[in-house]
Amino acid sequence: MLQKVQLSTDVTLVCTQHALSTEKEEIMGLLIGEVHNDGTLVSIVSSVILRRLDKKPDRVEISEEQLVQATLRAEELATEVGRPLRVVGWYHSHPHITVWPSHVDLATQSMYQRMDPTFVGIIFAVFLTDQSAKAPSIQITCFQSFNEGSTQSRREIELELTSNNKSLTLNNFEILTQLPTILKEEEDEAYKNDVGDNEVDDIINKQHNVAVRTIAIGHIVEKISRPMLETLVARNTINNIRLKALKKKHQELMSKLENTTNIQS
User: Fold this and answer.
1) Phi, psi of 29, deg, nearest 5
2) What is the pTM assigned to this prediction?
């Protein structure tokens, strides 16, 4: 029985940023990782951001095609890092509502557990407001589903945030930078569906649809792309400072080693 899940900080960043991309509808993605031989631990090392099939405030769906694509990506990563990676779970957001899974979430989780008993679900509750808090908060829960009589209930799984897997850091940041593109594709698809093939549609409706799409893309740039760029630039600056300090330390150690060698000779 699954007892614990380890989630790297890079994957947590990707999932959180995805969850914060919209406060009107739920988002979702799949998790790639490995299950240890004793079956008690899942180490989640990467994620796959999925385009929403339909924008809904209270539910999300995974298509068979998306699941196949994620499985193929897991196989590619497994070859790259030499580890038995596969799709081990899914995540989605709860904007403005409790972190606990709904009956729809439990039914979805139960369906995947029938195929894989170690399959896990993670929920990111975002934009939560509390009178005592100065800013909206974020809550995370990890769960599985089980039958309790004729109803389905949740079983909480211990969640541990771990240090990043260095072999997959580049992959995880590539996933993060794909987020604005995926969100834009969703808006383009929504615009295409609204416009349709109706050439006699009045000009007011056409202008309205164009304006909605323009505002949505502006939101992506302002709320996603710009903060993401600022975060990555800040992280690069910190890494450069650390690299400079490590080089200085390396020079000091090499100098001490050279002095010690000279004394011994």
Assistant:
1) -160, 175
2) 0.76
What tens digit of pLDDT does each residue of 9-64 get?
888 988 998 898 888 888 888 999 988 876 667 878 788 877 766 666 666 777 78
In this structure, are residues 19 and 122 in contact, taking their beta carbons and an 8 Å threshold?
A: no
CB burial of residue 81 (10 Å; 0-12, 13-18, 19+): middle
Q: How buried is 160 (Cβ within 10 angstroms: 0-12 exposed, 13-18 middle, 19+ buried)?
A: exposed
CA–CA gap between residue 76 and residue 82 (Å, rounded):
10
Closest by CA position to 186, among listed 222, 219, 231: 219
**CATH no. of 4-162:** 3.40.140.10
First vs last Cα of the chain: how many Å apart? 61
Domain range list for the chain: 4-162, 166-261
User: Tokens 């990043």 sit at which residue?
Assistant: 164
Residue 239: burial class (beta carbons within 10 Å; 0-12, 13-18, 19+)? exposed
Bigger pLDDT: 66 or 97? 97
Indicate whether 197 pLDDT > 90.
no
